[in-house]
Amino acid sequence: MTRTLVLAVAAVAALSATPALALDCEAGFRAFTHLGGETCIPEQPQRIVAARGDSIATPLLDIGAPLVGAGFSSEQGESFLRGASDIFGADFVAASGVQPIGDQNGPDMEAIAALEPDLIILPAWQLDLSEKTAMIAPTIVLNDNLPFLDHLAMLADATGLSGVYDQRLAGYRAKIERIQAQLGDPSAITVSRFDMAEGGLWYYPNWGAVDQVITDIGFSRPAVQSEAESRSDISFEMLPEFDGDILISSYAPRFGQTIPFFVEQWDQLAPFWRNLEGVEAGNHYWYERDVWVGYTFKSLETAADGLLLLTQGRFPAGE
């Protein structure tokens, strides 16, 4: 092998072994790693647009991010910011000044551009839109299926509000410690989430704030839930395995769902749901889905207070 060839081979090897250079951003910007790669974003963005309402815009409003636009939803002739409109109220959303950029499942590029954002945030399933939005402003795409608190932490980091996140997290953890002290041994209480539809039972593990709270307080779960790794559509025959000391099910008033509607539907689909020990003991309760599942610290606090109310002093752990 000639000396020239040896040097060429060595150079290629050196390049292969050298890590890629970090993204070089101009003053006032920093490199941020996300699902779409690495992007230079403002260190302190001032005009943020969030394509998704419930999982992006709502948690941003919760930590006081400067949100100027978001994808709104429409239902029964009403336009609303999913999640935020129920968690914080319509007046809060109106006062925030957030402008609609079209439907959250199909944002309007002209509406986004008109708001002159300095940061755009997309959900994972809209990754293919990032090339278009990047022509308007720096764009990041949230990683898919992040654990609840990691999801909130990534949003806080991207918007320069990690300090606010840390403060809110500390307050929430202090609340959890107080609840654990009041309950004594939360693991002695089994809390089960279950919902039913025409296709059978459905169950989402790691489902928003309520699931995070169940985990953090330390309640036990039925094995069928603690072992689940992804959404499951389950046969009605499996219903007895969802029994527990406390049973909770969700409904969404925003979409015209009511408790009487579900009770009637369930009595037709699987009337033996009433035979669950938790139901017979009067320990089956309903929670408003967009509030208890919401991606906000307020949802964590609401779900924690609710579960304490349902369990304190009623089981051996509370004695």
UniProtKB/TrEMBL annotation:
Residues 1-22 form the signal peptide. It is found in: Cell envelope. GO terms for cellular component: outer membrane-bounded periplasmic space. PROSITE patterns: FE_B12_PBP. Gene3D superfamilies: Nitrogenase molybdenum iron protein domain. Residues 48-315 form the Fe/B12 periplasmic-binding domain. GO terms for biological process: iron coordination entity transport. Pfam families: Peripla_BP_2. Keywords: Ion transport, Iron, Iron transport, Signal, Transport. It comes from the Bacteria. Belongs to the bacterial solute-binding protein 8 family. This is ABC transporter substrate-binding protein.
